[in-house]
């Protein structure tokens, strides 16, 4: 049975106006297209739309180093010459260019993810959507793979104030390396990434033998896939892993990164998923009935991304929408078929045999069996949110059945619980290296 969820959706009207630079595959404009489709399909009438909070440097240094965030605030196209050393140190330039308004862009997409986390903590919604977020490659000390600030890690740190176990699921075609690395040593967060692996595909990590370390051993799950995977084999693999994750981990909150570069025809990707196949995973997660933060991510064929996330918004709302794209100011992007579910061009053969996929799922399940069932954390008082302006107590009484119980709320994670000691981070990396060799 499907229950209508209380869905909030974040939209900052400026977030689609940033430019990574001519020829760069990451185009924030895809967000404007997506939002236009959402409006023209009338989906805004079925959910609460908010202009999100903007993250400040204090929010960002909950994960990132002070020096890196200070640099992001100061660097701009006009002064880039004076930062030569820092550009190398923080990995800016190249894939992660310095563009006009870079810090504002980071503060918008990060603020929206954080706002979603706060509202889930307050139980003022069941599902929070931020298509501008999901920048999963950003590292504590540097930018990486078009990502500067890791909004996902920052949102999860906020969720850990109220949720004992957070599950992170990543269906971007690239490995969710930044999030995995951040939580590699803890059992409070399980990261599960489905991605293309091998033949030097970016970022090169995400082998099935990367399983976490120390307290986090077995709390990292990687599902390496080969090119050309289609809807049926992808969903079968996804479900095979996630149903076991649910049984063994019993998360109290889920963060889902919906990178759309796993769609067929992506400019950088090589999978063969349709909107429906990609959306099937989103629907499956939604129907697990756990508080859910839904984020965007990669996606480099602009029309595909906007169609995909619009369709997924409709799935999260349980609001069927027509296959015919409604007339809108970007209509020409959807020529010639003007269809939400265009036929996909199967240029790629599926290199994933049934046996291979079964073996990958089997390996993941065997690791999950090694978990002590659902680790618990000490239950104490719930801390106040640090976003003081979001006072939502009045709304908290509604629909208690679909929300977490107060007693499930653990004490706040101590500030920077996982990041106080830089050595921890380094140890995580070392362990990962060891586990590969
Ligand atoms: Zn990606």
UniProtKB/TrEMBL annotation:
- Predominantly, its location class is nucleus
Q: Which superkingdom?
A: Eukaryota
What the entry lists under Pfam families is as follows:
Hist_deacetyl
State where a divalent metal cation binds.
172, 174, 261
Show the active-site residues: 137
Please name the GO terms of the biological process aspect recorded for this protein, alphabetically. Answer: epigenetic regulation of gene expression
The segments labelled Disordered in the record are 392-437
The Gene Ontology CC terms held by the record are: nucleus
**Catalytic activity, as annotated:** N(6)-acetyl-L-lysyl-[histone] + H2O = L-lysyl-[histone] + acetate
Compartment annotation: Nucleus
Sequence positions that bind substrate: 95, 145, 300
Q: Which UniProt keywords are present, listed alphabetically?
A: Chromatin regulator, Hydrolase, Metal-binding, Nucleus, Repressor, Transcription, Transcription regulation
Where the record annotates domain Histone deacetylase, the positions are: 24-314
In this chain, composition skew of type Basic and acidic residues spans: 400-417, 424-437
Q: Name one GO molecular function term.
A: metal ion binding
EC number(s) recorded for this UniProt protein:
3.5.1.98
Main EC class the enzyme belongs to: hydrolase
Family listed: Belongs to the histone deacetylase family. HD Type 1 subfamily.
**Protein name listed in UniProt:** Histone deacetylase
């Amino acid at each position: 049975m499907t229950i209508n969820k209380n869905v909030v959706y974040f939209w900052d009207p400026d977030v689609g106006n940033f430019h990574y630079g001519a020829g760069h595959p990451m185009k924030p404009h895809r967000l404007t297209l997506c939002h236009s489709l959402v409006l023209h399909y009338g989906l805004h009438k079925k959910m609460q739309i908010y202009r999100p909070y903007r993250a400040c440097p204090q929010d960002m240094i909950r994960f990132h180093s002070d020096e890196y965030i200070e640099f992001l605030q100061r660097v701009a196209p006009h002064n880039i010459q004076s930062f030569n050393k820092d550009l190398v140190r923080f990995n800016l330039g190249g894939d992660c260019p310095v563009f006009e308004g870079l810090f504002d862009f980071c503060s918008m997409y990060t603020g929206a993810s954080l706002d979603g986390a706060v509202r889930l903590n307050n139980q003022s919604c069941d599902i929070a959507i931020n298509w501008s977020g999901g920048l999963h490659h950003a590292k504590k000390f540097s930018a990486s793979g078009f990502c500067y600030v890791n909004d996902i890690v920052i949102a999860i740190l906020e969720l850990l104030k109220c949720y004992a176990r957070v599950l992170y699921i990543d269906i971007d075609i690239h490995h969710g390396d930044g999030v995995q690395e951040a939580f590699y040593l803890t059992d409070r967060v399980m990261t599960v990434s489905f991605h293309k692996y091998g033949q030097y595909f970016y970022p090169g990590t995400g082998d099935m033998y990367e399983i976490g370390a120390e307290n986090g051993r077995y709390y990292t799950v990687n599902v390496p896939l080969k090119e050309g995977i289609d809807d049926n084999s992808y969903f079968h693999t996804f479900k095979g892993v996630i149903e076991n994750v649910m049984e063994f981990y019993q998360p109290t909150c889920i963060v889902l990164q919906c990178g759309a570069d796993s769609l067929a025809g992506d400019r950088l990707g090589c999978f063969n998923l349709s909107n429906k196949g990609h959306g099937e995973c989103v629907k499956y997660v939604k129907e697990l009935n756990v508080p859910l933060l839904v984020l965007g991510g990669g996606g480099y064929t602009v029309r595909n991304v906007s169609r995909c996330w619009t369709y997924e918004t409709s799935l999260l709302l349980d609001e069927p929408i027509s296959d015919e794209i409604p007339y809108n100011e970007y209509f020409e992007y959807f020529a010639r078929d003007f269809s939400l579910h265009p036929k996909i061009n199967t240029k790629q053969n599926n290199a994933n045999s049934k046996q291979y996929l079964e073996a990958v799922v089997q390996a993941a399940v065997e690791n999950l069996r090694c978990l002590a069932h659902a680790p618990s954390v000490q239950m104490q008082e719930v801390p106040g949110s640090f976003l003081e302006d979001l006072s939502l107590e009045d709304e908290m009484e509604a629909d208690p059945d679909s929300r977490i119980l107060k007693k499930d709320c653990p004490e706040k994670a101590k500030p920077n619980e996982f990041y106080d000691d830089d050595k921890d981070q380094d140890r995580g990396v070392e362990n990962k290296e060891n586990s590969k060799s």
